[in-house]
Amino acid sequence: MKLLGKRNILCVDDPIAGFVGAALPAYRRLAQRGVPAFLFLMKVEKDIKVEKERILVVDDEITVREMVSKIINLLGHEVITAGSGKEALEILKNATFSIMITDIKMPEMDGFELMKAVRNQFPDTHIICMTAHGGSYTYTDVVGVGAKDYITKPFTIDEMRAKLNRVIREKDLIIDLTQKSTELEKANEELKRLDQMKSTFISSVSHELRTPLTVIKEFISLMLEGHVGALTEDQKEYLGIANKNIIRLTNLIETLLDFSRIESGKGLKLRFEPTRLMEVVEDAIMTFSQQLEEKRIILENRLDPDLPLVLIDRNRLVEVFINLIGNGIKFTPPGGKITIDSRGLTEKRDYLKIVVTDTGVGISPEDLPKVFDRFYQGGRTQTGLITGTGLGLAIVKEIVEGHQGYIHAESKFGSGASFVLTLPVFGIGTIYNLILNPMLEEAEKDKAPFSMIRVDFWDQRTKRESVLSHESWEGVMYALQKMVRSVDTVVPFQSSVVYIFSFNDKKLAKEIGERVQVKLTQGNYIPKGIDVQARTYSYPKEAHTKEEFLKGCRLFLKED
Questions:
Q1: pTM of the model
Q2: Does residue 480 belong to any structural domain of this protein?
Q3: Does residue 557 contact residue 494 with C-beta atoms inside 8 Å?
Q4: Residue 341: inside a domain, yes or no?
Q5: Burial profile 227-253: b = 16 or more Cβ within 10 angstroms, e = fewer
Q6: DSSP letter at 123?
Q7: 355 near 419, Cβ under 8 Å?
């Protein structure tokens, strides 16, 4: 046991615990007299092997630097010392250190200034701060300027070992996580590359298959219709089977193309129009008349014909119900039932809830959360044979979510399954959400003009708005669809008003309105005695901001 230097550094370097006990009273006597002292207990396990770290010790007192260096050397690490903050920064510029141990009270540049500088210039260096006994600094104070930990003087070798080991573990963990993150990023980039190759392959193959399949389908249809001579019953049966499988393969190709489009980030291009849902469901049901008859499955369409109109992409929604009905047929045993019904409106009354239910084998609890995953196929069939691509329900989910609706599955295994989806009710709110807002955002992003054209029909005699007959209305819509570009949208409203949303400026929008008036009037699309009026509202010509334009559109849109 010995007393070193002016700073009263009390060192016990004998491993016998009795000497440690003898040193403590001496340290206490110095402390009671108000004399600062540091107590280092140098009991070291000689045989412990550690991975060597490069550590920089910074303190303006040479005796402190020597003693801390001795501890670090005994712990098996490499140490360099600096007598000031400025010297420490110069050393760090020329060599790499994993850890820096610094005092706080130093002339010229104190420990706080040094830690801030190191954190900014050498962020990979981990810092342990030494504070004086009874100092007013807290853990929060030193950590706030960049230290990983702090140790209070006097400290024992075990305390220093514990602090160093904790900081080293944290450093190694960060390095390991950084390395794994880099490896993960590389693996992710490779997966993206392979995924892109897969999508490109699917798209290319699907396009290549469509043309020969179309030709084969047409020739089979010609033969079945008797254009190449009379057919025997067996020939008709075999050609019928071939035709059925051609249709099935064509549907598969369309699904793959949809999937490829989604995977490439292009998404599904939807064209919204007000539609009666009953008509959509009936179109889908017609596709399965033969399959339903063969499996003796009853399909009940319980939808009320007077349900409110929905604002949907009609063709895409037919695809949705074809997938859901086909899914029900696949997993429902002969003699079962599939029902399509409504659960009314959502709380805000802007979406309609629809449910497709089957009496099949149901979905197991572990499969239920995965049924909409791409390429996922659960073991739901009674025979254990899984057919299809596993893309049908994934495409359904994309289409429903493209309408800003949601879909989920409900089932008790062995008791059938239900698919509940929501579809937007036709109205001002859904026109804004599904058509106006997205198109205006696209125009703003591309710095393109955008206009809304309102077309009204007026009775010349009564000077009031006129509601056209169903036949006239069909003709008007046919003519308008032929006149606008594919990027524009035509929205009919209750057989009396048509809204055209167009990526054109005010001048071109006005010209479109004038052409519509001439076309509908001179083309005999409307009855005599009916006038056509067109008004326009444009961004950014008339409304200088998106918010101003949306507010002004309220004057053009109406809901009777």
A1: 0.57
A2: yes
A3: no
A4: yes
A5: eeeeeeeeeeeebeeebeebeeebbbb
A6: T
A7: yes
